[in-house]
Amino acid sequence: MPDTAYASDTAASNTSLRAYLYGLPGVDEVGAQARAADLSTRSIKTTAKRAAIDLAISMVDLTTLEGADTRGKVRAMSAKAAHPDPADPSVPRVAAVCVYPDMVETAVAALRGTGVGVASVATAFPSGRAPLEAKLADTRAAVAAGATEIDMVIDRGAFLSGDLRKVHDEIIAVKEACGTAHLKVILETGELATLDNVRRASYLAMLAGADFIKTSTGKVAPAATLPVTLVMLEAVRDHHAATGRRIGVKPAGGIRTTKDAIKNLVLVNEVAGAAWLDPALFRLGASSVLNDLLMQRTRLTTGTYPGPDYYTLD
C-alpha cells in the first residue's frame, strides 16, 4: 500500500487527505466475510491450545468503564489483572487494565511493580463529542495520573461528513498530549457502516500517529466482528510493508469465549503475521472472556471445569 504517496504534514489540505484515503483499494465485503468465516473454522491442536490460551490471557485489557465504578472495584480488578488465578501462579498476567481518567491513580497504585499497564479512555469517551481543548485536558490529566496508554475516540460525525482533516489533526494533537504514553485510536466501527470506511479510518489513524487502532468502545453494536478485524489487520500489515512501522490492533466488544479469542489469534497469524502475536501489537478488549479462558485452562490442566463461582465476576 503506497503510504509514502501521502505526506502526513498538518499543512496538507483536507482535499489531498480525502484524495489519498478515497483512493485506497475498495474492500470486497463479501470476500472479507467469506475469508473471516473460513479462518474462523481453523482448529488448533490440543497440544497448542494451552499456549494459545496463555497468549490470549496475556493480551487481555481488563476493563471497567461504568458510571458506578468505585476505587474498590478498580483495586479488585487490578489484583485480578496481576494474578488472574491466585491459586495458580503459572497463569500469565494480563496486558493492561483500562479505566476512566479519575481512576487511573488508583489503578497505578494497585499495579505498581506488576508489569501490568494502565490504560485510560479519554477525549470524551465514548461519544468523542467535546471541544478539542477538553479532549486534550482529559488526556493530559490521565497521563499525569500515570496512565501508560490512552484510548481516544475519533469524532465519527466529522469522519462521516467528510471532515477528515479535523479527525486527523485531533489525533495528532492527542498523540502529542500523550507524551510517552501509547495512543490507541478507537474507530467505533459499528457506526462506520462499511468496511471501506473501516479501512479509511484505519489509515487515517495510522497516518496521524496512532500506536494502535481499536475497533470499538464496547458501547455500540456491532463491535469487534471478524470481518472488521480482518480489514484492520490488512491495513496494519500493508502500512508496515510500506513504511516499516508496526501498528497494533485491538478488537473490543463481543469477544466472550475462548473460542472467540482463538479465532482472533488465528486471524492475526494468517492476515498480519506472527509478529503481531504479541501483547505489544495485539490486544483483546474483552473483560468477560478472561474467566472463560481461565476455565478452559484449568480443564486442560486438571481434566475438570471449576465451578461457575470459582472466579470473580468483573
Automatic annotation (TrEMBL):
Reaction catalysis annotation: 2-deoxy-D-ribose 5-phosphate = D-glyceraldehyde 3-phosphate + acetaldehyde
Q: Which Pfam families would you find in this protein's record? A: DeoC
- UniProt xrefs under SMART domains: DeoC
**Gene Ontology, cellular component aspect:** cytoplasm
Q: Name one GO biological process term.
A: carbohydrate catabolic process
InterPro entries linked: Aldolase_TIM (IPR013785), DeoC (IPR011343), DeoC/FbaB/LacD_aldolase (IPR002915)
Q: What is its EC number?
A: 4.1.2.4
* GO MF annotations, alphabetized: deoxyribose-phosphate aldolase activity
This protein's record includes keyword Heme:
no
Q: Could you list the residue ranges forming a coiled coil in this record?
A: none
Q: Could you list this entry's UniProt keywords, alphabetically sorted.
A: Lyase, Schiff base
Pathway(s) it belongs to: Carbohydrate degradation; 2-deoxy-D-ribose 1-phosphate degradation; D-glyceraldehyde 3-phosphate and acetaldehyde from 2-deoxy-alpha-D-ribose 1-phosphate: step 2/2
Q: Does the keyword Lipoprotein apply?
A: no
UniProt record similarity statement = Belongs to the DeoC/FbaB aldolase family. DeoC type 2 subfamily.
Specify the protein name: Deoxyribose-phosphate aldolase
Record the organism: Murinocardiopsis flavida
